[in-house]
Design a protein that fits this description.
82 residues, 4 helices
């Protein structure tokens, strides 16, 4: 397994990471990271878990509570570019 794959797998096992976060951490373009993760899924090394918060059964969309928590989390970060 390439070192990038091993690193990506460790990131996934450590907790929820987005594909973009994994790509940035392993120093690869997002499409490379996506392909790497797809290969890990295909080989069974990585399993996709269901979301922690199920969608609203009426709309199929995330709950308002989850979206509010996401918004508050994003607002808490300073995304200013130096």
């Amino acid at each position: 397994m390439p070192p990038e794959a091993t690193h990506a797998l460790r990131l996934c096992r450590a907790g929820g990471c987005s594909v973009a976060e994994i790509a940035a951490t392993i120093g690869q373009p997002i499409l490379v990271a996506k392909t790497l993760l797809s290969d890990l899924i295909d080989t069974g090394a990585l399993v996709i878990a269901p979301p922690a918060a199920p969608p609203n059964p009426d709309t199929g969309r995330p709950s308002a509570h989850l979206l509010q928590a996401l918004l508050e989390g994003l607002e808490a970060h300073d995304f200013a570019v130096a």
